[in-house]
Amino acid sequence: MFARTAFRAAQPLKMHARRYATESGAKGSSNTLLYGAGAVGVAGGAYYFLSGSKAESKVKEVVGAAPKAAFTGGDQGWLSLKVSEVEDVNHNTKRVRFELPEKDQVSGLHIASAILTKFKAPDAEKATLRPYTPVSDEDDRGFIDLLVKKYPDGPMSTHIHGLKVGEELAIKGPLPKYPWSENKHDHIALIAGGTGITPMYQLVRAIFKNPNDKTKVTLIFGNVTKEDILLKSKFDELENTYPQRFRAFYTLDKAPKDWVGGGGFITKDLLKQVLPEPKSDNIKVFVCGPPGLMKAISGNKVSPKDQGELTGALKDLGYTAEQVYKF
User: Which reaction does it catalyse (predicted)?
Assistant: First the structure.
């Protein structure tokens, strides 16, 4: 599927490969931090001078009680969530919004984690299970959004595309993936194809909404056509806001004549141009996409708990298994 197609690099790509300038903190971040520190200080003072339940009550009044989570993992079981919105994103992808049980609840997902969906067709012997990474923010209350591409032979994607407002789907979570903390790595690279972009977007969103996180991010995103590029407006906004820390490169299998990005599949030559060097300190490369992309770039993982052997282009370029994570 992902043959070694020559990469027709546009001139801007060559100019920006592996080049980042030092960036000062985002404007306004110092005020935000100052305000946050003040709030914590007030809360700490309230707790010091009061005792028992009164102290706890006063602290909650100042800093606010933590929102209740819909998904708590463990033995919670399945939740039947109702569809509240359906939006056509392109010819084969929909954004489907599911209501959480309570309007003031957050999902309970952390970075990085996903949810598991389930449904059983009337003529099926077993239920179909599929993981998805929501594209809604972890702080959003009352709903989660799934970005679902319909595949001709995909029972779950076909089922979700057929859901109407008011109908329900069984969902549980969170499913833990890669545990992230601010500045865990100096530079990360995200290699994605198709809807494999959703866990990458979750990670990117968490990094750039945190003013303390200064991680540099390089995204390589492969698709069939220009219309298949999901969440591009979000990435464009990040690239314009953080030009010294975020760079995105796109490749298309069927590129139009006016396309200024890459042509063909994601290749070893492209990765060599834009990824952080394998000998660089404290880097991480994340990979997610269809089996053909995984096989060509990193090798497929064996199971959710077994990353499998590192093979493909990343191994050929000198990256180690410890530097690569397969979503």
Answer: 2 Fe(III)-[cytochrome b5] + NADH = 2 Fe(II)-[cytochrome b5] + NAD(+) + H(+)
Per-residue pLDDT tens for 271-316? 999 999 999 989 999 999 999 999 999 999 999 899 999 999 999 9
Q: Is the dihedral of CA 299, 303, 304, 305 positive or negative?
A: negative
Binding residues for FAD are: 130-132, 147, 149, 156-157, 198
b/e for 5-31, b at 16 or more Cβ within 10 A? eebebeeebeeebeebeeeeeeeeeee
pLDDT tens by residue, 199-218: 999 999 999 999 999 999 99
Domains of the chain: 11-17+178-326 (3.40.50.80), 79-176 (2.40.30.10)
Tallying the residues shown for the chain, one arrives at 327
Burial class (CB in 10 A: 0-12, 13-18, 19+), 241: exposed
Binding residues: 130-132, 147, 149, 156-157, 198
